[in-house]
Amino acid sequence: MVQKVAQMRQIEHLIHFTRVSNLTSILTNGIIPRSTLQNNRIQFLHNDDHRFDDREDRTCLSISFPNYKMFYPMRLNYPADDWAVIRLSPNIMWELDCLFTETNAATRYIKDTPDHELRGAVALEKLFAGEEIRKQLQLNSYDTTDVQAEVMVSGIIPPNYIIDLNFTSQNKIKDLVALQAMNRTFPQFPWKIRASYFYPR
Asked: Whole-model pTM?
């Protein structure tokens, strides 16, 4: 069972990063996959111009730590924007329809793998394969072997799965006043400074 793997691995949260301009919609309506946003003509700012994984009906999450190999270039591409790292409940993995990819979902290997082979506990365990490399990298039990491994969630992820919102150090936040106002509007979501999420694992 996926839940047993998550408990054994001590996975406490999933990760999604986004520009702060998307937060009001996310905190109100949840995380909505790109295809649904586009089909309903809902305004949003996407992170990636191209979804080469060909699964635009799913939202990409990471386990325990952001995919910094994507997150860092994104921030370079949009230097004027503030970013949030959203931590989400691991319950998503067994309560919603999820695919587990051991590396970037845009790779040909993953794109060619049928959905049913990317579901379930066996697929999830593959994200933690490679005992020797894990020892060399000194990874924790809850760290995926490849930082680009993904949990791809079908449909809308409701706001009740959000644990908290994390931001870079205050002196690097470009519009702190706007963030503080948002925090007052959505007091049910804890607002934290966790600069480590903005650096490599």
From this structure: 0.91
